[in-house]
Amino acid sequence: MTLVMNSSTARASVAPSELHIAPDATNFTLLPLSDLHLPTNPEAARKILENRAYLRRMDWVVLLGDMVGSYGTAREYRAVDSFVRQLERPYTAINGNHEFYFAEPHQGQDEHGALWQENAVADKARQLEKFVASSAWKTCGARAHTPLGSFIFLGLDDIENHKVESLSAAQLDFLKSNCVSRRMRRLLFSATRR
Fold it and tell me: Nearest to residue 139, comparing CAs of 95, 180, 101, 193?
Protein backbone atom coordinates (compact mmCIF):
# COMPACT_ATOMS: atom_id res chain seq x y z
CA MET A 1 0.00 0.00 0.00
CA THR A 2 2.00 2.98 -1.23
CA LEU A 3 0.49 6.37 -0.57
CA VAL A 4 0.24 8.85 -3.39
CA MET A 5 -0.39 12.37 -2.14
CA ASN A 6 -2.40 15.09 -3.79
CA SER A 7 -3.92 18.22 -2.33
CA SER A 8 -6.55 16.54 -0.17
CA THR A 9 -6.19 12.77 -0.07
CA ALA A 10 -3.84 9.87 0.35
CA ARG A 11 -4.51 6.78 -1.71
CA ALA A 12 -2.80 3.49 -2.29
CA SER A 13 -1.07 2.73 -5.53
CA VAL A 14 -0.37 -0.88 -4.53
CA ALA A 15 -3.47 -2.64 -3.25
CA PRO A 16 -3.42 -5.38 -0.65
CA SER A 17 -3.26 -8.97 -1.84
CA GLU A 18 -6.26 -10.89 -3.06
CA LEU A 19 -6.99 -14.09 -1.19
CA HIS A 20 -5.75 -17.09 -3.16
CA ILE A 21 -6.08 -20.59 -1.75
CA ALA A 22 -5.18 -23.63 -3.82
CA PRO A 23 -8.25 -25.70 -4.80
CA ASP A 24 -6.78 -28.76 -3.06
CA ALA A 25 -5.76 -26.91 0.12
CA THR A 26 -6.60 -28.64 3.38
CA ASN A 27 -5.42 -25.84 5.63
CA PHE A 28 -4.69 -22.16 5.52
CA THR A 29 -2.87 -20.14 8.17
CA LEU A 30 -3.74 -16.53 8.72
CA LEU A 31 -2.59 -13.95 11.18
CA PRO A 32 -5.22 -11.47 12.38
CA LEU A 33 -3.75 -8.19 13.66
CA SER A 34 -5.83 -5.41 15.17
CA ASP A 35 -5.33 -2.04 16.79
CA LEU A 36 -1.74 -1.49 15.68
CA HIS A 37 -2.22 2.31 15.88
CA LEU A 38 0.81 3.14 13.74
CA PRO A 39 3.03 5.12 14.13
CA THR A 40 2.01 5.80 17.74
CA ASN A 41 2.61 2.17 18.78
CA PRO A 42 5.99 1.26 17.25
CA GLU A 43 6.70 -1.40 19.87
CA ALA A 44 3.83 -3.61 18.63
CA ALA A 45 5.03 -3.35 15.04
CA ARG A 46 8.61 -4.07 16.06
CA LYS A 47 7.64 -7.24 17.98
CA ILE A 48 5.62 -8.56 15.06
CA LEU A 49 8.29 -7.80 12.46
CA GLU A 50 11.11 -9.27 14.57
CA ASN A 51 9.35 -12.63 14.68
CA ARG A 52 10.26 -13.57 11.09
CA ALA A 53 10.06 -17.34 11.62
CA TYR A 54 6.46 -17.01 12.78
CA LEU A 55 5.53 -14.60 9.98
CA ARG A 56 6.90 -16.95 7.32
CA ARG A 57 4.47 -19.64 8.49
CA MET A 58 1.49 -17.35 7.77
CA ASP A 59 -0.29 -17.70 4.44
CA TRP A 60 -2.06 -14.38 4.83
CA VAL A 61 -2.30 -11.42 7.24
CA VAL A 62 -5.59 -9.64 8.00
CA LEU A 63 -5.34 -6.12 9.47
CA LEU A 64 -8.52 -5.72 11.51
CA GLY A 65 -8.91 -1.98 11.82
CA ASP A 66 -7.33 0.83 13.77
CA MET A 67 -4.12 0.38 11.83
CA VAL A 68 -3.59 4.14 11.91
CA GLY A 69 -2.54 5.92 15.08
CA SER A 70 -5.45 8.25 15.61
CA TYR A 71 -6.98 10.13 12.68
CA GLY A 72 -6.11 8.49 9.34
CA THR A 73 -3.54 11.13 8.38
CA ALA A 74 -1.08 10.75 5.50
CA ARG A 75 1.73 10.32 8.05
CA GLU A 76 -0.17 7.49 9.75
CA TYR A 77 -0.90 5.74 6.43
CA ARG A 78 2.81 6.00 5.53
CA ALA A 79 3.61 4.15 8.76
CA VAL A 80 1.05 1.45 7.89
CA ASP A 81 2.55 1.22 4.40
CA SER A 82 6.03 0.73 5.84
CA PHE A 83 4.75 -1.94 8.20
CA VAL A 84 2.92 -4.01 5.56
CA ARG A 85 5.91 -3.86 3.21
CA GLN A 86 8.09 -5.25 5.98
CA LEU A 87 5.62 -8.08 6.67
CA GLU A 88 6.57 -9.62 3.33
CA ARG A 89 3.29 -11.58 3.48
CA PRO A 90 0.08 -11.30 1.47
CA TYR A 91 -2.41 -9.22 3.41
CA THR A 92 -5.70 -7.38 3.38
CA ALA A 93 -7.27 -4.84 5.69
CA ILE A 94 -10.58 -3.63 7.02
CA ASN A 95 -11.09 -0.28 8.67
CA GLY A 96 -11.86 0.51 12.26
CA ASN A 97 -13.06 3.75 13.78
CA HIS A 98 -9.64 5.44 13.79
CA GLU A 99 -9.49 5.32 9.99
CA PHE A 100 -12.44 7.72 9.69
CA TYR A 101 -14.35 8.69 12.83
CA PHE A 102 -12.16 11.19 14.69
CA ALA A 103 -11.28 14.73 13.60
CA GLU A 104 -7.60 15.58 13.44
CA PRO A 105 -6.65 18.49 15.74
CA HIS A 106 -5.94 21.78 13.99
CA GLN A 107 -2.36 22.55 13.04
CA GLY A 108 -0.45 24.03 15.91
CA GLN A 109 -2.34 22.04 18.53
CA ASP A 110 -0.07 19.67 20.38
CA GLU A 111 -2.95 17.28 21.03
CA HIS A 112 -2.28 14.56 18.45
CA GLY A 113 -3.63 11.32 19.87
CA ALA A 114 -5.26 13.08 22.80
CA LEU A 115 -8.36 14.71 21.25
CA TRP A 116 -11.26 12.50 20.18
CA GLN A 117 -13.76 14.87 18.58
CA GLU A 118 -16.18 13.30 16.10
CA ASN A 119 -15.58 14.20 12.45
CA ALA A 120 -18.38 15.89 10.50
CA VAL A 121 -20.34 13.51 8.25
CA ALA A 122 -18.68 14.83 5.08
CA ASP A 123 -15.22 14.40 6.64
CA LYS A 124 -16.07 10.85 7.73
CA ALA A 125 -17.10 10.10 4.14
CA ARG A 126 -13.81 11.51 2.79
CA GLN A 127 -11.80 9.50 5.29
CA LEU A 128 -13.66 6.32 4.37
CA GLU A 129 -13.06 7.01 0.67
CA LYS A 130 -9.36 7.40 1.48
CA PHE A 131 -9.34 4.03 3.24
CA VAL A 132 -11.30 2.26 0.48
CA ALA A 133 -8.84 3.67 -2.07
CA SER A 134 -6.04 2.08 -0.01
CA SER A 135 -7.67 -1.34 0.10
CA ALA A 136 -8.49 -4.09 -2.39
CA TRP A 137 -12.21 -3.60 -1.73
CA LYS A 138 -14.55 -1.21 -3.51
CA THR A 139 -16.61 -0.79 -0.32
CA CYS A 140 -16.11 -1.44 3.38
CA GLY A 141 -17.58 -4.93 2.97
CA ALA A 142 -16.25 -7.80 0.89
CA ARG A 143 -16.15 -11.56 0.71
CA ALA A 144 -13.79 -14.16 -0.68
CA HIS A 145 -15.02 -17.66 -1.47
CA THR A 146 -12.39 -20.38 -1.16
CA PRO A 147 -12.32 -24.18 -1.09
CA LEU A 148 -12.04 -23.93 2.70
CA GLY A 149 -15.08 -21.68 3.10
CA SER A 150 -16.01 -18.01 2.78
CA PHE A 151 -14.15 -15.13 4.34
CA ILE A 152 -16.35 -12.10 5.04
CA PHE A 153 -14.80 -8.70 5.74
CA LEU A 154 -16.81 -5.90 7.35
CA GLY A 155 -15.35 -2.48 8.03
CA LEU A 156 -17.11 0.20 9.99
CA ASP A 157 -18.97 2.56 7.67
CA ASP A 158 -21.88 4.25 9.45
CA ILE A 159 -20.92 7.90 8.97
CA GLU A 160 -24.26 9.29 10.16
CA ASN A 161 -24.37 7.45 13.47
CA HIS A 162 -22.79 9.14 16.46
CA LYS A 163 -21.68 5.82 17.92
CA VAL A 164 -17.96 5.29 17.52
CA GLU A 165 -18.32 1.74 16.16
CA SER A 166 -21.36 0.82 14.10
CA LEU A 167 -22.33 -0.73 10.79
CA SER A 168 -24.61 0.97 8.29
CA ALA A 169 -27.84 -0.62 7.07
CA ALA A 170 -26.01 -1.50 3.83
CA GLN A 171 -23.31 -3.37 5.79
CA LEU A 172 -25.93 -5.23 7.81
CA ASP A 173 -27.73 -6.20 4.57
CA PHE A 174 -24.40 -7.32 3.09
CA LEU A 175 -23.77 -9.45 6.18
CA LYS A 176 -27.26 -10.95 6.08
CA SER A 177 -27.02 -11.80 2.37
CA ASN A 178 -23.62 -13.46 2.85
CA CYS A 179 -24.65 -15.59 5.81
CA VAL A 180 -27.78 -17.17 4.30
CA SER A 181 -26.28 -20.49 3.16
CA ARG A 182 -25.93 -22.99 5.99
CA ARG A 183 -23.82 -25.33 3.86
CA MET A 184 -20.77 -23.13 3.59
CA ARG A 185 -18.27 -22.49 6.36
CA ARG A 186 -17.67 -18.79 7.03
CA LEU A 187 -15.12 -16.75 8.89
CA LEU A 188 -16.16 -13.18 9.64
CA PHE A 189 -13.68 -10.34 10.18
CA SER A 190 -14.96 -7.08 11.59
CA ALA A 191 -13.78 -4.20 13.73
CA THR A 192 -17.04 -3.99 15.68
CA ARG A 193 -17.40 -4.88 19.33
CA ARG A 194 -20.89 -6.34 19.07
Answer: 95
CA 81 vs CA 109, 117, 123: distances in Å: 26, 26, 22
Q: Would the pTM of this model clear 0.70, i.e. be above it?
A: yes
Q: What would the pLDDT profile of 92-119 be if each residue is shown by its tens digit?
A: 888 888 998 898 887 655 566 677 889 8
In eight-state DSSP terms, residue 93 is E
Percent of the chain topping pLDDT 90: 21
CA 164 to chain centre: 16
For 36-73, letters b (16+ CB in 10 Å) and e give bbbbeeeeebeebeeeeeebeebbbbbbbbbbbbbbbb
**Which amino acid appears at position 123 of this protein?**
D
E strands present in 65-155: 91-94, 141-146, 149-154
With H, G, I as helix, E, B as strand and everything else as coil, classify residue 191.
Answer: coil
Neighbours of 82 (CB within 10 A): 15
Closest CA to 34 of 191, 193, 186, 174: 191
pLDDT digits (tens, 9 = 90+) for 127-168: 988 888 777 666 777 777 778 888 888 888 888 888 878 888
From residue 145, how far is each of 22, 29, 84, 151, 152 by CA, in Å? 12, 16, 24, 6, 9
